[in-house]
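To assess whether ligand presence alters the predicted conformation, the chain was also submitted together with zinc ion. Input:
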Amino acid sequence: MEAHRPGRLVQCKNAECRQYISIPRSILPGIPGSQDSWREAGETANLVCHECGQVFDYTGSPPRGDPSPKDDPYLSGVLRDGRLEFECGQDSCRARVVIHRPTQIGTSEQAIGDEARSRWRFVTVRCPQGHVVPCLPDSVDDYEISA
Ligand SMILES: [Zn+2]
Ligand SMILES: [Zn+2]
């Protein structure tokens, strides 16, 4: 029997994990009003896997089906789009790197920051200009978390 998989999902690129990650609505293609949405198939977004902590860039694809609001964890009050953002800095690049962390409602920004420093591992993370970003900035003052 197929497990219940609400909302729209990508599968973790870590071959030893393959956990399903629920895609924040704000970065889905065709969802207006978000400045860094996947407006078109082929755009990428950086997502953290809550299971293994590995961070990859995922390519947008046209949504298959349209789950009803009650099946979407971002509309039904289960998850929200936790974000960690910083300036790229590669070759003096000023572009903002955004890491999306699908986050249970009630999780503090502090908890996301602690997890980021202790568990996240950047595998393929890219800035909007295409630079490969190897890791978090060293200083906590150099990134911002919102949840
Ligand atoms: Zn994973
Ligand atoms: Zn860059």
